[in-house]
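=== RUN LOG ===
request id: a7f3
mode: sequence -> structure
chains: 1
length: 187
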Amino acid sequence: MVKVLKGEKTLLFARRHADAATKEMQLVPYQTGLTFDPSRDSDSTATKSGSVNTTSSVETDLEVNFLNNTSEVADVLLQALFDGTQMDMEIVRTDRQNDKGEYEAWYMQGSVSEDSNDNDADDSSTRDVSFAVDGTPKHGWTTFTPDQQADVDYLFKGLAAVTDEDKDGGGTAWTDADNGKDADSGK
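=== RESULT ===
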């Protein structure tokens, strides 16, 4: 069965390339749009025996739109533009998995080429960040770390403080086995 992929399920993660050994990629929070546009120019030369085509290397445009926020990765993206910092970017499709439970992903390296933000009086501040992608993006499969999964999904938390010792705040997430349970009825 052919499945339609949803734009809302396609997410961008990023980090400084220099931090690859010490930091996991971070979800860019509050994304409103993501454009992934690989292309290859071609040219045709007419010959007496017919056209001969030549193609150039792949060029990739990557752009993310999001509500401006105070996350570390949002600050890193803006600073990377001024510093010329090499970045790692990964697009993850959370609605496409292989038989190992890994998500489809595109990994890229490059730099921030533009960071535009709009600050209208009657709306949230928005950002539009474009990347200059080096080389050809690499296609593969990935998994989330627990912190990345928590950023992607709301996870149930109890009323107590969420600490290193009690990451669920004293709560227990609902499972399908809980359907129809009631302590008073003994079921």
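=== NOTES ===
The two ends are 39 Å apart (CA to CA).
DSSP finds two helices and nine strands in the chain.
=== END ===
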